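Subject: sequence -> structure tokens, single chain

Hey, anyone have a minute? Need the predicted structure for the following. Not urgent.
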Amino acid sequence: VLIGFPLPPGTDARGLVAAGFRRVLTPEGELLDLRDRPEALERDRRRLVVVLDRLRVGGGAGTDRGRLVDAIEQAFAFGAGEAVAWLPDRDERLRLAATLRCGACGISYRRLEPDHFSWNSARGACPHCRGFGRTLVIDPARVVPDPTRSIDEGAIAPLALRRAARERTALRRFCARHAIPTDVPWALLPLEVRRAILDGHPPSGYRGVRALFRRLERKSHRTHVRVLLSRYRGQRTCEACGGSRLQPDALAWRIAGHTIAELLAMTGTTLRRTLEPVRGQLARHPARIALDEALRRLATLEEVGLGYLTLDRPSRTLSGGELQRVRLAGALGSALTGTLYVLDEPSTGLHSRDIARLTAALRRLRERGNTVVVVEHDPEVIAAADHVIELGPGAGHRGGRRLFSGPPGVLASQASTPTGRLLAARGEAAIERARRAPGPAIRLAGASRHNLRDLEVRFPTGCLVAVTGVSGSGKSTLVLEQLVPALRERFGAPGAPPLDGDEHERLPTVQFEDGCEIGAVLFVDQSPVARSPRANAATMSGAWTAIRQLFADTERARERALGPAAFSFNTGDGRCPVCEGAGAERIEMQFLADVTLPCSACGGRRFRGHVLEVTVDGRSIADVLDMTIEQTAAWLGELAERPAFARRRRALAVARHGLDLLVRTGLGYLRLGQPLSSLSGGEAQRLKLARELATTADAPCRSLLVLDEPTRGLHTEDVRRLVTLFDALLERGHSLIVIEHHLELIAASDWVIDLGPEGGPQGGALVACGPPERIARVRGSHTGAALRARARTGGDTARRREQGEHGAQGDERHAIVVRGAREHNLAGIDVRLPRGRLVCVSGPSGSGKSSLARDILFTEGRRRYVDALAVVSRQALPPLPRPAVEHVGGLSPAVLIEQRLHPAGAHATVATTTEIYHYLRLLYARLGTPLCPRCGLPCVAHSERAIAETVVERTAALAHGAQIEVLAPVVRARKGEHRALLERLAASEPAVGWRIDGRTCPLEPLPRLARHRVHTIELVLARLDRRTDPKRARAVARAALALGGGTLVLATGGEDTVHSVHRSCPRCGTGLAEPDPLLFSFNTARGRCPACGGTGFEREPEALSRFVSARPCPACAGSRLRPEARSVVLGGRSLPELVAQPVATARRMLETLVFERERDRVLARRLLVEAQTRLRWLEELGLGYLGLDRRAYTLSGGELQRVRLVASLAGRSSGLLAILDEPTIGLHPSDRERLVHAMRQFVRDGNSVVVVEHEEQVVRAADWVIDLGPG
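Reply:
Had a minute. Here:
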């Protein structure tokens, strides 16, 4: 065999000979000597091969094999990764490549990492669409919304814009020059003409309508321009990646003949069947582990009834129930133990056939030692529970009481509770209604979308029609994406939901049978009614206008000149100025959950005092908002009967009618002022249904109402009320179509359309249609099977299914089980560690103790916890390695405390290391009293007028040529997206620029801000000088105070002075901004002392030696904080004074704090508990003598180890696995005893502890000992 490499480009014969290469191989198999035939290189250079070696292989010659390997490696080196092997006996050439290269065409591919197959990674996402699979382009269907119009009639919508005069003129000239008629409908113009008008005609110099959009896109930094462009844009499949969202390299790789995009486009069930044959081909391949994990998770998706979903389906298109079950599948895949899972109605959107799968999945979570809490109405799920808690008996103020707590079998015997009656029902329907005869039908023909294939369906009118089928069978596609758009197109209704496709796909044809009188279609879903917390039932029902007028008509309101606007909590001068009519204030608690409290000014009553003094029938406007809808409707009815309100009788009747509709939908328990954003999905749908009822009451034609799972979130008692409402609609001549899984509502329907038979590709067919009894007789219908089972049991779902042992798989419920541990030097050992105990792992140094505890237990526990997180959260974390172990069961989320060889940071203290300081600075920021840094007096409120006069005085005192900037702080040290705020302010406020993070910049273009960084943004409203009119100076000051929430900043000569209406010194007038937790942090620019940079020492940190004492900073006296932070006191002490105390003293000081207001007690409670818990832990570990401000690097090794132990364990929840690696290093025997006591306390709190230790004192104190060795 001859081994060589392709002739490198630009190489001559002399160079090859000098390098030791003498022969080349021609395409014809001829060997030429370059010394004799140098002209051989002038042949087809691309097909010449430089011969490197010639040898004989085979015959068992080991030396030849080694020589062959060496020759090929050298050929790769000289041939840039390419080599050629020529077999003369067979006259065959083998092209070899060290890289991924095609031997036929020579194209090369790079080796890819997992990130290259992810569209969420910059390395894998298609650069054209940035991983979205779709691009925003100008949509011709939106540019020409009505093709039946001509150009003269305005067919091209954007040319009607005022700024499109240039393009209108150009189009007229182009049409006149080329004799294009402008009075002919757009649809009748030739395709080439339409394209030329839109895209341009280069030969004639006409740039087309798109020239307008190109001009606008150059100004897209402005909000109104982007809004304008969005009207004419649509989504199209990315032409570069074909919608796969990935780069071409990633699509070149295949598994089982499919690219990753093709695999993800399959349903979960199809993908599992595709990958299972591959498993046998990877018996010893490292990828087998990943494949097994993928197959296990795909099987879990099927278990929870989601096998019909394609893997590339966007999560935003999933229903709430589907999304919960996806997360449930992820939880099952994480294999965690000791975790609390809370699921809110996971059966939502699930067919009765799949309920058993769901309950089996929930039981698997339970059997692993987890606790599962499910909020549920489905009787099947309730019956499968181990324990049921029923609340009620009604909703709203009628509920909130515990009616039952115990096993479901006992609940079935409790006929006094709604759920007990549901479970105990035997031989009777839960919902009784008179069956209606189906009327003339709406015929839908040619429905083809997703899994629907040219479907033809009849929808009878004048009755209740239920569309059923298993999840993914095509119900929503048929009704919401085919029937509703087709009807809206027929009726010419605006706002038809856009199809999620490249073009406006062909809608099915709609025919009305004789006698069908439907003239409108209304769709009611469960999307939020309103995102604003200010919207409520009063405003949505229309009753609020009449109620406000009622109060404005009173004698006291007329005396005080209070019109209807004064009784509005959204606008006007009548609302509370502090909370702006919200009635509550939201207090940001940074790393803790925010706290919402009643407004401190109005006490939660929303209005000013003089407005609340106006009453109607003894009730103020706030009292009315606190009434329930039912109470308000009755009250308005009483008022309408009184002669004193005769003038408003009609308005009161209209308002009461709107509220009565809400009562009839079962929402009478809601408070009139309850924010709509707090409603559940079921409540929101009923609220919208009531609104549609009010609309259809006066409608001139009969309507078709379409509802998407109206029973979602409803108890069977509520479903009965809903059906009563349906019958009222049907009585008026309207028609109803509901997409539904609720068996009782299906059984009570007049007509059922069942799709299936399965989900995904196996669905989309019409299985059966007719009355429920006919569906029950169809053997191939899953809905029919569920109806038959319901008829057999009479609705009896209270029987408890056989669930076997209420226990774990093996003993993993009570122990951590490790099998086949081979990490480092572990020899495939099996270990059992009891949970909820103190376990000691001991043995000689190097015996594998840390490998077991840290590298297996902690690493695997952390990896599984990360796997259980949402995908968005996991993206920010690095991939975690999988330890070399066959099986680990019974794991809880783990925390590791180990000896650290590196010293603590120069800025770290005992308080910061244990997190005590974080809670204290939040406590001071929210509840501290600010003092003037100069005078030491408590700050008081300052009038807006006085601050405006100060601005005038400062302006008049300026030197010639000097200016003073008036700034409004709009964002104070916050992360997040601020661009929308900047755009709004730039468009609405007269300003001259910005000051962002201390740097001044012009008003436009808007600066780019990193949303993960803390920013302080101030709007520069004006630059004033000594010639500025005092009136203008006062107006600017008032505008700055309004924008800055009562605070403004005056900047001149590089110095800032703050003025505040809330916190100003009564002597010198110095204003202080609202205290922020960052103000008390010496690690941030906002809080650190400007003189020492937060070090507390006079010298710079670089010159600081840990072995040489340094003088304290003269400016902050070593406290490291700026003057404004040092001037905030709580209980008469500043924060530096508190942290200067020893641990024991600081704890006692915190215990003596007294807060008079309930608001302050609520805010302080959580903060004090967290801080005091950590202080007690420090005392229990024998560290009560340490000062909280003691530098961590001055601590001994034993002290620092115990401080870090407190930081890791204090305040943690139960159910954790704590792993400690030799925590007794550097500890005295007495301190070891305290450490053992702390670990036992942690175990008593419901946690598990695994400690790697040699000390006999700890080994003897353990509940369980594992000894590794022997060496």
